[in-house]
Amino acid sequence: MPHDVAAPRAGETAATPDVPYYLPTGTERALFETAHKNRLPLLLKGPTGCGKTRFVAHMAARLGLPLHTVSCHDDLTAADLTGRYLLKGGETVWVDGPLTRAVREGGICYLDEVVEARKDVTVVLHPLTDDRRLLPLERTGELLEAPDNFMLVVSYNPGYQNVLKSLKPSTRQRFLALDMGYPAPEQETQVVVSETGIETDRAQMLVMVANRIRGLQGVDLEEAVSTRLLVYCATLLQAGRPLNEAVQAAIIEPLSDEADVKQGLFETIDALLG
Length: 274
Fold this sequence. Notes:
Elements: H1 28-37, E1 42-45, H2 52-63, E2 67-71, H3 78-82, E3 83-88, E4 91-96, H4 98-105, E5 107-112, H5 119-125, E6 134-137, E7 142-145, E8 150-156, H6 169-172, E9 176-179, H7 185-196, H8 200-214, H9 227-238, H10 243-255, H11 259-273
Parallel strand pairs: 1-8, 1-9, 2-5, 5-8
Antiparallel strand pairs: 3-4, 6-7
Helix pairs in contact: 7-8, 7-9, 8-9, 8-11, 9-10
Keywords: ATP-binding, Nucleotide-binding
Domain ATPase dynein-related AAA: 41-175
Protein name: Nitric oxide reductase activation protein NorQ
């Protein structure tokens, strides 16, 4: 994405090769740094595409820590995190998983959408989220103690929670928690401009569209328009694609497969943009 954008405003950190761009919306950076300093685990809650993963990458770079990211899914097991024995060159060798590497070497282990993982994953995390900060490896007989610079961060989208996919209260209460929503319109506009180099007035237009859709009542949408989708749309516009095509590809189609819902979104957006 373009780097020749305006200089950062107060409180903003410009993107550099070492520190990914992130615009703070409150005191989240200070809370993250305090949690790391005091060896506390952190839970990020927020809708898809609101910047949770970017925030973690930004903070890892600010703190100069290695980042081990795991995208959780239905088939993710505890062994995927801790490690397993594999055949290599005719020999059986133990290979650390990302969580074990982070505990051995230090750094941040980030589990994205942790509620998507199988239940045995949270059991593995529990000893790391209290004052013990231990990782038992039953297969090798090791008991690893996390170094001071290790930090466990997990995230999930509360909007997707149901009876089968939710964090138990006993797990949630092992973490500090930070609620991350979509930025205020001015801040979201600034993010879109900084990420893509698009003109401010066009970014404002996209943010207006997003907020109108987010406020729609009675529309069957599992998710609202994310900041990520606005960046995608602005990127298409910057590449010279027509507005209707960019909106269709980056906003309407990702939100729904239902023809009537898509038609309603198109009419809403068309009325806004004239």
